[in-house]
């Protein structure tokens, strides 16, 4: 094996210790300990603690609050404690846990105090200089004066410019480095045995997990910025090790430092020696499991009750609306169904189209599919030939808006003009700032009026048809066969055989002001982008007569009077916009009735979420609009906070349940999936993505300083790729406190691992797990729990027990409401 291959292989293995981090403009929630999912949860938590200093479990105070509020069933807790050898009463165990936490916190504070008093170390200097270069190189459009030579790549750009950096102890040394970063690594590590190289790389990659996670994501996923300004892990490590060598910082891990290898060894040793009451699972995890089991038992009991209930054959609905599986869709779906004769369904919000999308006046294209899916089609929004007038109106508004934005940016960011701008425009600009701050509701009215300006969906159509003459990194459009396949897959996964007169594919997007993490509130299945474009593509596909004819040949008998429409759900205000430019006159009355019903549903959903259901319902709408426009609002919406379960099955299972916006809901009919292909797609795709989302929220809740991003109040965005706490250092890797807490030290998100409930035959699920060891490992290792409600065994429930075996569930009481869902307010934080 060549030295170059050895170095690349060592880097690849070492990089698994750092989870990928997505840039802010397309923030994707992911498990920060994804590299350790092959190990049991408690072992991964220990390894994360040793490598990154993170806590992996809720605090004793959080458990006590859940215990005292009845969220943890006493019988379930007693059984879990007994199974793991704990004999003390719960209160004593919580006190013991709190004492241990206080002791650890005191030790940490003492260490921090010692760190504050110590002199700056060579390692500190390496981090300071490296993060400065990283921020300059990885900038994605925020900097007015971009770093020179970026097109050469990170290693070469730094090597070229280092001669001008007065902070470097030996600037000439960088210029003498080899042209190839791999050769530089070989030279720098010449005094170290090859067997140590992987440990060296682990140590240096884990030193700045935020920045290296971003680099790892860019390397793995590519994209326009990576294509134009490439960076590699080898190039990053070559720069870091060269800095370490120059500052006299050790290249190899100092004695006692943790790498992935030492963390693994320490965890294995701890497991061998035993830990608190049994030899594997710590006390916090026992409490956590009891909390999760309580929630899961209530959910499964309610679902099985609904499965056993007789359902009457319904008349053809006036419309079918397909929403994303996102937890926020659960709320609006209930209210849409209550507003009229409508069916709602759940499907991953990119609607199965693995596409890259470019808006009509967008500067760059964005991937609009999950990170685990490669974009294969390029879709561009182009003006339709019959909409010239609307296009002209849009262009006028666009030019006006862009001119204002550019002038404001130039004047406020340019060092030469900033002061003169404030002096000359201070009164008017100050009035605008005051209005934004003191009168956000009035600003919302103004923005709503501006929104009445023509949108590009009114005169543009997505380039769905395949264009062999278009050149680019991806093929433009889709062939007819591909269009048929994507439409058929959607219908198969949802178990559809009958179609309403109007079918709406409803993407979703958020609306917020002054929020670095705004993309985390958009559609995660669309890589942190709005889902409306994907909905428009699938609607256009399904309206094509050639596609429909081919679908009929495959058993999907779409009536001639069925029209497919796209829409987008604003998850901040609960408004649903229909993109109906091409709706025939024969369906205009249907669309108008649907619009009225959607307005009714919006009012009810907003009232529920704002807690105003018992007052004037319209106050909920006004409050959501204010939050969307208020740039001082730290919580424009809760996003996916509260997520705890993923339910896969027919809508009948959950239609009468009030799941409080905590469940991902994916439509599935096992009777229409005899081969199990649809179930396999759901388990290998959406189930994995929901687990990513769940673990991101979990870890950001239990240790926000390490796995989150701290308070928005003290965040500083950098390069449109991330945020600092303070004025520099490592990128923060997760969600801010305001997305997780209702108030200081009062959690809103309950840190529970994902409970998955599948309505399918046990044997069918077992076959999928047998073919996909990673999925079986997620369940066996405690990253999620898996329950099957089997329609072939009288709707009995079975819990996964590892090794492809199942345990029949004993019936338990159901605390989830099974009456028609009333309005139940979600708590709203005081800012």
Could you explain the architecture of this structure?
The structure is a single chain. This protein is an alpha/beta fold. Among the domains are: 3-14 and 121-265, no CATH class; 319-387 and 459-641, no CATH class; 390-451, no CATH class. Helices cover 46% and strands 11% of the residues. It has 29 helices and 20 strands. Strands 12-11-17-18-19-20 form a 6-stranded mixed beta sheet, sandwiched between helices. α16 (327-339) links the parallel β1 and β2. α3 (60-68) packs parallel to α15. The radius of gyration is 28 Å and the shape is globular. It starts with a helix and ends in a 23-residue tail after the last strand.
Unreliable stretches covering 5 or more consecutive residues: 271-278, 415-419, 813-831
Over all CA atoms, what is the radius of gyration?
28 Å
Sheet/helix structural class = alpha/beta
Number of strands: 20
Oligomer: single chain
Please work out how many helical segments DSSP would assign.
Answer: 29
In spatial order, strands of the major sheet run 12-11-17-18-19-20
Question: Span from first to last CA?
Answer: 59 Å
Can you summarize the main beta sheet?
6 strands, mixed
Keywords:
single chain; 831 residues; alpha/beta; 6-stranded mixed β-sheet; 20 strands; disordered C terminus
